[in-house]
Amino acid sequence: MAKGRRSDWRPGNLQPTGGVQADLVEKIRRVQEEAASVQAALEQELINVTAAGGAILITISGHQRVQSIKIDPSLVDPNDVSMLEDALVAAVNEAILASQEYAAKRLEAVTSGLQIPGLT
Known about the structure:
It is built from 2 helices and 3 strands, in the order H-E-E-E-H. The protein is an alpha+beta fold. It has a domain of 80 residues: Ybab, Chain: A (2-Layer Sandwich), CATH 3.30.1310.10. The two termini are 47 Å apart.
């Protein structure tokens, strides 16, 4: 018999340890499934962003894909193309930012319940 071991000890009705860990793994799996569902939905969800005082309307998906750009004809001046170019760059960047913020809020709603020790 090994030193320090009882010869009459039997495991009996012991429950495996790690119940908390198993719960955490299950919670992570559920969050991953929900996040994947939100990601799929974001591809179809559209955000309308106006810029240049409402003269530009950009429709962008939750995956930061520009769907359409509408420009008020009053903004189009053939003698000042650079102004239109600058307005479009600013508008597209604003739309991308709005889409990223929207997606982050949607995903935060899914992941906010996940409490991982050491990370929260």
